[in-house]
Write the structure tokens for this entry.
Amino acid sequence: MNTLSTRLNASFDAALKRIESGARDGSIRAVILASGKGAADSKSPCFVAGADIGMLAACETAEQLAALSRDGQAMMDRLEAVHSSHGVPVVAAINGDCLGGGLELAMACSYRVATSHPKTKLGLPEV
């Protein structure tokens, strides 16, 4: 299951740095975000199912939760800026669960496409 976590943030930060650099120098003309977990014929595909609940539960203070939220928002802002600042389109290729923070990630992209797989669901369950 793909979830938003501090481990993902470190990997995503490295990928965003490469994307931002390529967007600035013109070597990257488009970006597609897709999951390698759960192919189209899989019984349980997943784009991003939201935040890692264990990571949230490990926070002991409201300040720690706020810092996680700020870091996540900064990541989304950087992703959105790839298109708004550099003109490079970013596409979320959604197959499977795209929930909570996963949907926020998809909404930070310039475009979204989703499969018709019965397990593809978009939503904000915390609402």
About this structure: The domain at 6-123 is CATH 3.90.226.10 (2-enoyl-CoA Hydratase; Chain A, domain 1). The first strand starts at residue 31 and ends at 34. The helical segments are 6-25, 53-57, 62-84, 101-108. The radius of gyration is 15 Å.
